[in-house]
UniProtKB/TrEMBL annotation:
This is PDZ domain-containing protein. Pfam families: PDZ, Trypsin_2. Residues 281-356 form the PDZ domain. GO terms for molecular function: serine-type endopeptidase activity. Belongs to the peptidase S1C family. One of its GO terms (biological process) is proteolysis. The lineage of its organism: Eukaryota, Viridiplantae, Streptophyta, Embryophyta, Tracheophyta. Coiled coil: none annotated.
């Protein structure tokens, strides 16, 4: 007796669920053909949209990650950029400002923004779509502001300005402090190993369910990304291309940065820099970027042999920034700043981290 015959004769009557009628296809052959045509068209014009759960670490996320993500998700949008009829860029973004007349969205910039005929479509969390315009962009920071005209305000992101200062005091137990609850405020102290979450929005084909939020949990790291920009920080989150420009949030749902893509991690621009950039643009109508002619990093990120020498010479210097490079002929060189100098005060203000 074959296995199929055995199942039908002996087990079938006991398990009627096995005899369910075959399900009808969810889509007709005609609709399925249209979906595949759209898929092929998008694949030939842009990198195919892929959700974050492409990576196993983004599947089955825990309840704490879900809570933080859901708190921030109303402000997360999906953006499509077109030059004529051709799509040039698809990414995520988040709303930082919204009034009864306009809404501002921060996202990542693209070289395609330099064309005059760029058209923007903004897809918000409730499924609605709006025409947008590029208000400002900066390819140095790889940041852009998109504006939409709307007579009702939309949910805005809660910004958590980063404080990445960490003491190098050997008697200070950083790991214990990192797991303590911190009060809600406009600033957030972050240290390597802290949980962060990259968010993005994914727009499905019209025949599928609307717009989906995506979450990619990871850890903040002091490792440097491959982009040639010292202002960028790194997290171990794994995102796909349609998540670029989306927010990086902390475990309370506060936005701490703008996500950029890297091969094996997620680089992000701290929200401190992005916020200052936008405020300067609103005030001056253009971006302003100071240049002192030196590159610095946080004191705690220096090699351990250098930290040991600093502690031996200056036991009271426990926070600050260390100079990695001084440009010849710069104002920093004229001021007498040298390689491996530690800066703890600038313009009469105490300096504890790079973001200050």
């Amino acid at each position: 007796m074959s296995l199929d015959s055995y199942i039908k004769k002996w087990l079938g009557p006991l398990h009627p669920a096995w005899k369910r009628e075959a399900k009808q296809p969810r889509y007709s052959q005609e609709i399925f053909g249209e979906i595949m045509d759209e898929f092929e068209k998008s694949r030939n014009s842009l990198p195919c949209q892929v959700m974050f759960n492409l990576y196993p670490q983004n599947e089955n996320i825990d309840i704490y990650t879900k809570r933080a993500s859901l708190k921030a998700s109303p402000s997360v949008v999906f953006l499509q950029f077109f030059s004529g009829e051709d799509a040039t860029c698809e990414c995520s973004g988040f709303i930082i400002e919204s009034t009864n007349t306009y809404t501002i969205i921060l996202t990542a910039a693209s070289t395609s923004f330099e064309t005059d005929d760029t058209k923007v479509i903004v897809h918000v969390s409730d499924g609605r779509s709006f025409d947008g315009q590029i208000e400002a962009y900066d390819l140095h920071y790889n940041i852009a502001a998109i504006k939409i005209q709307l007579d009702t305000p939309l949910p805005t992101a809660s910004l958590a300005y980063l404080d990445d200062s960490i003491t190098i005091d050997p008697s200070h137990n950083v790991k214990e402090e990192s797991f303590q609850l911190r009060p809600h405020s406009s600033s957030f102290n972050i240290i390597p190993g802290d949980l962060v979450i990259a968010l993005g929005r994914f727009i499905r084909h019209p025949y599928f369910q609307g717009h989906s939020i995506m979450a990619a949990p990871g850890l903040f790291s002091i490792s440097r990304c491959r982009h040639d920009c010292k202002e960028l920080f790194t997290a171990s989150c794994r995102i796909t291309s349609c998540g670029i420009g989306g927010p990086l949030i902390n475990r309370f749902g506060g936005v701490i940065g703008i996500c950029l893509h890297d091969d094996i991690s997620t680089a992000f621009l701290p929200i401190n820099i992005a916020s200052i950039w936008w405020e300067h643009y609103k005030k001056y109508g253009k971006t302003r970027r100071p240049w002192l002619g030196m590159e610095v990093t946080n004191l705690y990120a220096a090699p351990i042999e250098i930290l040991e020498r600093i502690i031996q010479k200056f036991p009271d210097v426990l926070k600050g920034v260390i100079v990695e490079e001084v440009a010849p002929g710069s104002s920093a060189e004229a001021a007498g700043i040298k390689y491996n100098d530690v800066i703890i005060q600038f313009g009469g203000k105490r300096i504890e981290c790079v973001l200050e």
